[in-house]
Structures are given as structure tokens and as C-alpha cells.
Amino acid sequence: MRKLPPLSALRAFDAVARSGSVTAAAAELHRTHGAVSRQLRALQEHLGVPLYARQGTGIVLNDAGQALQTLIGPLFDQLEDGYARLQQRARQPGLHVACSATFAMRWLVPHLAEFYRAEPEIRIRLSMTSAREIRAEGADLLIAWDLSHYPETERERAIALAPIAFGPVCRPDYDWRARGAVRITHEHTTSAWTLWRARWRAHRPAAAGAALPRASELPRREIAFPHTHLCIEAAAGGLGMALVESRLVQRELADGSLIAPCGFVPVDGAMMVLPAGELDAQAARFVDWLRAALLR
């Protein structure tokens, strides 16, 4: 038997703690001011200590109140998010996956037929978001290789899938050593070329013919685009040399429309998946498939 206070009292306390006002909490909960006040008194009696003090027309949490809010606030957030996912899944069955538009178009969607052959009863719903501020968008799983803007507690929950490697690509007829050569950059990763060259020195590619360019040989003129997909298309169109993750240009490298004259080198980090909560059976099977497919 669980020894918990009435959940309605905890909900009232949470609303008051967030708003700092019984009146505002009553409006949020669609209850009367008196009903919320009674819930607070009942919670204090159940706990055996006061939780707040009056301050003007509002209230201020004391140490015990702050401790209780620190405990229950994240639990209510987790409950709210989880319940919303259950509602969404009931309306739209399937595993909801969020990732960048470029990764979805250039790797995930082309490989989904393979996944469906292995797991015909699981359906994937995709949300494609900005690579700069990739968000879960209420998804069950978020796929990304840069979670630096996420809180550390969430990054710690991320599951590593596969290493990543970057390299510059261009058309076979593009003279990337020419004086007027152009490097194509992502608008939100402008230091990527400098970081790539440093990694190249530490991990010389084994690709045949790959040669470390001197600093003077790297294109100095620069154009930028807001999406990696546009950077790749610009390189394929002959606008310059783009720095990209190797998996995103496998089709072009295979058909010869793009080449990687300096090869690809591993960089810090990995392709990761961030689950919204505990992995259920469907999510675990998708993650297992994803890891195996990315490592091939």
C-alpha cells in the first residue's frame, strides 16, 4: 500500500508553488479559492510542517515547501509528458522519432524499408526539426549527434549508436585547390573546417589518395547555408566544397557525382538517440536496428 498524500492536494500545492498565488492556482485548476486553500491546509496537516508563508496577496515557500516542490515538480512534468505521449500514440499509433531533416531525407527514410521488413508491425512517425535547435517535438526518440544545448541530465540518458566521421566533398571536376575555390559551411557550425583539419592531423584517413591539404590549399572564400542538405546540393551543383558527415553522401560518392579528396576522419562525439523515457519493446527494437544499420 502506497503511503502518499492525496494527489489532488499535491496538484494544488504544485500549482500554487509555480504561480505564487492561490488565486492563480485556482484559475488553473478550475477550482474555487477556498477549495485550493483547503487542499493546502490538508497537505500541511498530512506532512506535519508548514510549507509556506503569506507575503502580501501571494505566498512564499519556506524551506520545507521548496524541498517538496523540488521533489514533485519534475515528477508532475514527467507524468504530464508521458500521459501526452500515451494520448498521442492512442490517436496516432506508432513510434514517434524526431531527427534533423537532412538525416531523415538522406539516411533514415532510404533505410526504413529494411526496418519494416524486419519489424513489419512497427510503424515510424517522423518529426523533422532544425539541426541548430533540434527538439524532441513530443517524440519517443530523438536522433542527433549534437545534444550540446540539452541539459546535462538529459545528455546523460542519451544512448550512443555509432561513431561519426566528417570530410570535405566536391564534384570530381571541381578544382578545390584553385585560388578562387569556395568552402561551403553550415551557418551554425562555422568553426567546423578548423576543427576538421585538426582532427585530420590526428587521424590520417586510410582512403587511397587522401592527402592532407596545407592550410594555404584549403578554400578561403566561403558561402553558408542553414541546412546540411543545402550544403550537399551546393557542392553537387559545383558551388564549392562542403564538409559533411560520411553517411549523408553515400549515394553521391557511390555514383561518382561527389568525391571526398581528403577522405573522412572521426570526430568527437557519436550518433546518439535520446529517449523520452524508459524504452518500451518497440523503441528498444528500433534502437537495436538503428545501431546495427549505422555501423554497417
Q: Keywords, please?
A:
single chain; transcription; LysR_subst-bd; 296 residues; two-stranded antiparallel sheet; D-Maltodextrin-Binding Protein, domain 2; alpha/beta; DNA-binding transcription factor activity; sequence-specific DNA binding; 10 helices; Arc Repressor Mutant, subunit A
Q: Report the order of strands and helices.
A: HHHEEHEHEEHEEHEHEHEH
Low-confidence stretches: none
* CATH fold label of the largest domain: D-Maltodextrin-Binding Protein, domain 2
Task: Look at the structure and give the mean pLDDT.
Answer: 84
N-to-C CA distance:
50 Å
Summarize the biggest pleated sheet.
8 strands, mixed
Computed CA radius of gyration, to the nearest angstrom: 26 Å
- The strand count comes to 10
The CATH level-2 architecture of the largest domain is identified as 3-Layer(aba) Sandwich
By DSSP (H or I, 4+ residues per run), the number of helices equals 10
Please list the strands of the largest sheet in the order they lie side by side: 4-3-5-10-6-9-7-8
Summing up helix and strand content along with how strands pair, one would put the structural category as: alpha/beta
Helix share bin:
40-55%
Q: How many domains, in number, for the residues?
A: 3
CATH class group of the largest domain: Alpha Beta
Q: In one word, what is the shape? A: elongated
